[in-house]
Specification:
Blueprint lengths: L1 E6 L2 E6 L2 H11 L29 E3 L1 H14 L26 H13 L5 H11 L4 E3 L1
Antiparallel strand pairs: 1-2, 1-4, 3-4
Helix pairs in contact: 1-2, 1-3, 2-4
């Protein structure tokens, strides 16, 4: 399964594992999700606006997309060009303001490792897409 994002800027396809990781990365770098609008086929009163991952056609507003874009741009400074995915050594230390919890720190390191090397381009491509505004998630 893949995620298909549809907006005025066209379509954008992400692997099933990449989209949730991009959202998590954005949250670590300061994105506070505004919530999504209900898909056309689900009554507004039945919709959970915190839902970004169920591929129903929910809508992410322009402002939310731009805030996510800003957070992901910030993350690029910490993600290494070198691929650390398959190495047992620790990635270079990254200190995010406010991340003092060891579990959160480990989670952040795993995200940075996930997008290190050639996969850093996934972030750049996603940024390029969402900086043009909102989109629906299918």
């Amino acid at each position: 399964m893949a995620y298909k994002l549809v907006g005025k800027q066209g379509d954008f396809i992400l692997r099933e594992s990449d989209f949730p990781q991009l959202l998590r990365l954005g949250i670590f770098y300061g994105w506070e999700p505004e919530g999504t609008d209900a898909p056309d086929h689900i009554p507004v009163e039945e919709w959970n606006s915190r839902e970004y991952l169920n591929c129903e056609g929910q809508y992410v507003h322009d402002t939310d997309a731009l805030k996510l874009c800003k957070a992901l741009k910030t993350s690029l400074n910490d993600i290494p060009e070198r691929d650390f995915k398959y190495e047992s050594q620790k990635i270079p230390a990254v200190k995010i303001q406010g991340v003092r919890d060891k579990k959160k720190e480990k989670s952040l390191f795993n995200l940075i490792k996930y997008f290190s090397g050639n996969d850093k381009k996934k972030i750049r491509e996603f940024i390029e897409y969402i900086q043009s505004g909102g989109f629906r998630i299918f």
